[in-house]
Amino acid sequence: MAAPGAARRLYRRILQLHRALPPALRDLGDRYVKEEFRRHRAAGPAEAQRFLREWENYAALIQQQIDEDKQNLREKTVYGLQLTEEKLNDFRDEQIGQLKELMDEATKPNKKITISEDSKYKN
Fold this sequence. Notes:
Strand content: under 5%
Number of domains: 1
Keywords: Chaperone, Mitochondrion, Transit peptide
Number of helices: 5
Largest sheet: none
Subcellular location: Mitochondrion matrix
Organism: Lepidothrix coronata (blue-crowned manakin)
Subunit structure: Interacts with the iron-sulfur protein subunit within the SDH catalytic dimer.
Protein name: Succinate dehydrogenase assembly factor 3
Shape: globular
């Protein structure tokens, strides 16, 4: 992967951000991040740049949501975001499969993770 120092710092930052998540969500997120960074170790420069940009966007989003939760700006904290159809169309078949696996894992009945489309802020 291009710029291994930057990738390593981002990886550590994401795992650190996950510490603020509910335990089940943290566990799921940590496993996914570790797997994805491992999978992209040998990525070419263009793919590595895209990969890092998407994970930087993820880290910024999670940081913002954690900060909002700490300030009680939301009635109910919802982490992540809804993927648009346009974004999903950009995914390769392999990525769609990974997304399905992640969704299945996150929505298992024994997990205490709330999946909600309601991300409205308090007035």
